[in-house]
Inverse folding.
């Protein structure tokens, strides 16, 4: 089974307004709807869309839990969250106007996770995640959860042979590295922060990626936004150039990439096929206005255009 | 009794963010709270703060009704609303950042009022509002309510001798004029739209105000923002200059003015005292950052600074 773990779940409230958002005027709502927020839950949506069984878990605030569960169930995602009583799941406002210059995102911190809530999730992961399973941890930590507690959760998911796939940053990522996760997916800045060095060329990246591979991480993926990615596996590092698409909205591309990558692992794709699939799927997302939209059909057309080169050149 | 009637109630969700609201970044919430939206409910808050008995009525969406009732009860307002099942009361987003250049207000239209909901309010007004009562109608119409239906509600409130005080605009105000309300309070633009003329001087305004007084409206008040107001009553029109204050936030000043005015009517203040009181109360609001904050103590200090001149000069 694939488990996605969202520790700081969110519900996106997407608001389209008429005209350009301005101060001191009545900005009128054209259309508003709720969408799933929280990185790992998005990965679940991608997997479910690809018909790959998975379970979304993590923490939710009990007050508006039903809203999030409903959104996930509409997308075919099976849920098994730990709810903390008396707390709301945070809402992220995503405001879009007619300027076409990107959205305004307004985020709350989320509720503070109690010790017993944490323990419930630790126990669940320890019981459920077994040999051959994948556990995808993605997104930020909620208030009240420190690096040690985060590592305890990762350990619980790994202790019976679960494979950790981490899309996280900063101190969290650094502290998780010691557990030798199966895969990590930082972006350029996050990777440079992780290795504590300014890196300028693909070869410089490749050399640092190889060190992590040698330390026991199976997949080290550094995403470069619209420039593609660097993928390290075994003894090799590859420079991956994405297909050229007309970018409409790149929000959510990273989550689609992770979903495609995990889908590839689950289906035991050969490395090259897996890279092509995840990259093309992510590119198909960039062509769409909605944050959680992507097209497996379009990805199939785009796969052939993905360029993969071994490094150093 | 004083009844305030809000046909398009709203709950303000006030959000303070860190830094300047910008696109394509994570704007973090510093502080967020709910406040009362909807003009007539604000008038109720002013009256209750001045310890003047009043009842807030109108339409609310049943889904989040409790939130609004709680906010009103915290301010000591007695509520007697008609709730429409299955609908949410609209939420207005008020976003404030560190720029100090005014807020971003994002408004929804509100739910569409059904025929039976309308009929319930019509009956309530007809039964409750009697001789000597005031009925304050303020704010916009909800979707699904046309000018004729609006006038039916006004008629219901007036039929046993209730006095209508209207803070509304456009077609609504025009159609209400035929009922000879007790008082109207348009601003400059709204008044010019009402009389269908461009007005340039105080004397030109005075001449039009007098026509409405002669047609049977007891009080015609044209508010001029920070420039004060024109007040017509009996055979006279007065130019009212407000005290000089340091304006921090003028949102809500109009509602405080109406609240002060109705409080004055209720307490049978002489005209001059009533004008001084409402104007000073409104000025005390402008000195405060919050939309529903004002200070009766400060207003007392400011009353003497209000200048009242008879027109034409």
């Amino acid at each position: 089974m694939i488990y996605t773990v969202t520790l700081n779940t969110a519900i996106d409230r997407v608001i389209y307004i008429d005209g350009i958002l301005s101060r001191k005027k009545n900005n009128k709502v054209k259309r508003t709807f709720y969408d799933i927020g929280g990185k790992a839950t998005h990965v679940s949506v991608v997997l479910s869309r690809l018909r790959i069984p998975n379970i979304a878990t993590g923490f939710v605030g009990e007050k508006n839990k039903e809203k999030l569960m409903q959104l996930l169930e509409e997308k075919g995602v099976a849920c098994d969250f730990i709810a903390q009583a008396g707390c709301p799941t945070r809402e992220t406002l995503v405001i879009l106007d007619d300027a076409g210059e990107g959205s305004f995102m307004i985020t709350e911190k989320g509720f503070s996770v109690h010790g017993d809530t944490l323990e419930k999730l630790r126990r669940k992961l320890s019981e459920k995640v077994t040999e051959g399973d994948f556990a995808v941890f993605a997104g930020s930590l909620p208030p009240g959860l420190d690096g040690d507690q985060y590592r305890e959760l990762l350990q619980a998911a790994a202790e019976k042979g679960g494979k950790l796939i981490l899309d996280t940053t900063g101190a969290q990522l650094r502290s998780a590295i010691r557990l030798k996760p199966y895969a990590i997916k930082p972006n350029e800045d996050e990777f440079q922060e992780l290795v504590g060095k300014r890196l300028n060329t693909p070869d410089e990246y490749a050399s640092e990626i190889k060190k992590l591979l040698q330390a026991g991480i199976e997949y080290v993926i550094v995403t470069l936004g619209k420039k593609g990615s660097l993928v390290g596996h075994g003894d090799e590092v590859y420079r991956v150039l994405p297909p050229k698409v007309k970018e409409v909205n790149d929000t959510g591309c990273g989550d689609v990439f992770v979903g495609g990558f995990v889908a590839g692992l689950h289906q035991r794709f050969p490395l090259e096929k897996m890279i092509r699939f995840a990259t093309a799927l992510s590119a198909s997302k960039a062509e769409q206005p909605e944050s959680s939209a992507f097209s497996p059909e379009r990805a199939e057309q785009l796969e052939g255009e993905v360029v993969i080169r071994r490094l150093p050149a």
In short: Chain B has two domains: 1-133, 182-313. Residues 271-286 of chain B form the longest helix (16 residues).
